[in-house]
Specification:
This protein is an all-alpha fold and 196 residues long. The chain contains ten helices and no strands. The structure holds heme C (HEC).
Length: 196
């Protein structure tokens, strides 16, 4: 069986160290190799250099905090597109409803429940119950109202603006409307079960 020590040295290394007729040429090559190795190990200084880590303290700044407040008036690069998306309701189609359902089930069901009746698992554990989407006031509410609640929060419900993108807010609003229509239906609407 071959032992690891049997393996031949890499050909490039052999050429570098043994090539050349003059001993001084060989010595120069070895020196160059050592210099390269030294340069590579010096790269660790990037890790070691003095720096501020996120949320660390920094005496040079007020409140001894490394984290700086974003200057007043700062605008994120994609802000205009996000504002435009918030103001423009997308066309409601099957793809948008699918997206709305997925996002609703991720972000809203824990409190509002799968069918939107305000009976999510967190409510079962004692969280204040949200109103059912079947309430006449919420049935009559325009899609903009749902988008606004997701964006700015409502009463004790906090904003989901940081988690749900503007277009997805419209998708959720469309899906809530679908839940409302389904919730308002009679058994007869399902077909085949008329009169029950
Ligand atoms: C952590 C629990 C929780 C989650 C998650 C949650 N909500 Fe709510 N929501 C509430 C509560 C509680 C209220 C009632 C707030 C009040 O009236 O003070 C509420 C109220 C509402 C209302 C009714 C506003 C009105 O006019 O009365 C809407 C619409 C709504 N939420 C939509 C959503 C949507 C959409 C999501 C998902 C993006 C969501 N909520 C996620 C707890 C939650």
């Amino acid at each position: 069986m071959r032992q690891p020590s049997d393996s031949p040295p890499a050909p490039a290394l052999v050429a570098l160290l043994s090539g050349g007729q003059w001993p001084c040429a060989r010595a120069a090559r070895i020196l160059a190799l050592l210099l390269c190795a030294g340069l590579v190990s010096a790269c660790n200084d990037m890790v070691e250099q003095p720096k501020l880590k996120p949320y660390s303290s920094a005496e040079a700044f007020d409140q001894n905090a490394e984290a700086r407040a974003i200057p007043f008036g700062t605008v994120a690069r994609d802000e205009p597109e996000r504002i435009a998306a918030l103001r423009t309701p997308p066309k409601v189609d099957a793809a948008l409803l699918d997206r709305g359902r997925a996002q609703y089930e991720i972000y809203c069901t824990p409190c509002h429940g799968l069918a939107g009746r305000g009976d999510g698992i967190i409510v079962e554990r004692g969280f204040p119950p949200p109103p059912s989407y079947m309430e006449p006031r919420l049935r009559a509410a325009p899609a903009e109202h749902f988008v606004d609640v997701i964006t700015n929060g409502w009463g004790v419900m906090y904003s989901y603006a940081a988690r749900v993108e503007p277009r997805d807010r419209w998708a959720i609003a469309a899906y809530i409307r679908a839940l409302q229509l389904a919730g308002a239906g009679e058994m007869a609407d399902a077909g085949g079960e008329a009169g029950r």
